[in-house]
Amino acid sequence: MMMEEIKTTIIDRIKLHFSDAVEKEFSYNRLDFSVKKETVPSILFYLKEEMGFKHLSHISCVDWLEEGEFEMIFILWSPEEKIKVFIHTRVDRSNPVMDNIDMIWRQANTYEREMKEMYGIQFTGLEAPEEFLLEDWNGPPPMRRDFDTEAYAAKTYWERPGREDALDVRETVEKRTGEVLPEFAKKYKR
Amino acid sequence: MINDKNSQKIVDIIRNYARKHSLWILAYGTGCGAIELPPTMTSRYDAERLGVRGAATPRQADLLLITGYLTTKSLKRVIRVYEQMQDPKYVIGFGSCTINGGMYWDSYNTIKALDRYLPVDVYINGCMPRPEAVLSGFAKLQELIQDGKANGAKEYKENLKWYRDNQKKVITNWKMPEYNW
């Protein structure tokens, strides 16, 4: 079967079973669906058991600070059809609770632990040790966009004096050598 | 043995000579710097001709090589490793990450200056230092040992409180054994 036909079949079947799924097509072998967060476990289970998406490639998270939401992305891969499906969902940022899916894929447990630590997303019924990568961490989840890394580092760790002028390389070069920055480079200044 | 000043001086010279030619290193490969060690040790640069070779455990090693950035998590392990080492012991800070944070200067989880937490005898500059730079660092350390100036371990024992305070500032949950050397 051609890739286009496979994609149409997948879209038809998903839309038949999950009415809230909104599809978005990308070039060649990628297909995206946006669903509500309650649908995520059932759509993942359906894709794995019925449609041959056996492999969970990745779970990722995006912090949409301005919209007050986290976006979670599940990337699945079908070894037979050679096609990948992205499942997008949005979680409220002030109360980030998500369904645990590690009974579908055991390896999801690791991703969930990481997201719990780095973004502070709670997974209902997740059985895992408290700490994953960080040890004795007291601050807010470090991968959230409202966490100021630079201020935290300046507060916590002692900095050796002598590199105050070298924070922005372009500016330093400009100051030391008198070389004028081109217009396009100026917008990337700190 | 005649216990006067001059005979002690001769003993020191012989002892330092022996020490400087048998630097057994424990490479603590935290960052990218561990990649520079295989070419340093193997046939092209051949550090073993200077008496530098790898050691299996901290208790057999003379020299702790810290090759790159240290997170607070790995700093804890490094401190334990350093305190387990037998005298004489030396530390080389390797790369700009150990000197001033390097490219991780604004990271939430890495320390910026190693000598606040452990006594560093020699720093090797660079990101990353080439094997030639590493060898020159070893040569510098040998020079210091011959002159009796590589006193990092002694300094650590004398200023233990200052080092401990700094260590406890970043390692909040301090559950480490206290050694009584």
- What is the CATH H-level superfamily of chain A? NADH:ubiquinone oxidoreductase Nqo5 subunit
Low-confidence stretches of chain B: none
What is the makeup of the main sheet of chain B?
5 strands, parallel
Structural class by SSE content of chain A: alpha/beta
Arithmetic mean pLDDT of chain B = 89
Count of domain modules of chain B? 1
Shape of chain A: extended
Give the number of domains of chain A.
Answer: 1
From the structure above, extract its key features:
heterodimer, A: 190 residues, alpha/beta, Beta Polymerase, domain 2, 5-stranded mixed beta sheet, two-stranded parallel sheet, 6 helices, 31% helix, 24% strand, B: 181 residues, Rossmann fold, 5-stranded parallel beta sheet, 7 helices, 40% helix, 12% strand
Kindly describe this structure.
The complex is a heterodimer of chains A (190) and B (181). With 190 residues, chain A is of the alpha/beta class. Chain A has one domain (3-183): NADH:ubiquinone oxidoreductase Nqo5 subunit (Beta Polymerase, domain 2). Helix content of chain A is 31%, strand content 24%. Chain A contains six helices and seven strands, in the order αββαββββαβααα. In chain A, the strands form two sheets. Chain A has a five-stranded mixed β-sheet, covered by helices on one side. Chain B has a five-stranded parallel β-sheet with strand order 2-1-3-4-5. Chain B is of the alpha/beta class. In chain B, helix 4 (96-100) links the parallel strand 4 (90-94) and strand 5. Chain B starts with a helix and ends in an 11-residue tail after the last helix. Chain B has one domain (22-133, 140-170): Rossmann fold. The longest helix of chain B has 16 residues, at 5-20. Chain B is built from seven helices and five strands; from the N terminus they run αβαββαβαβααα. Chain B is globular and about 55 Å long. Chains A and B meet through helix 4 of A and helix 3 of B.
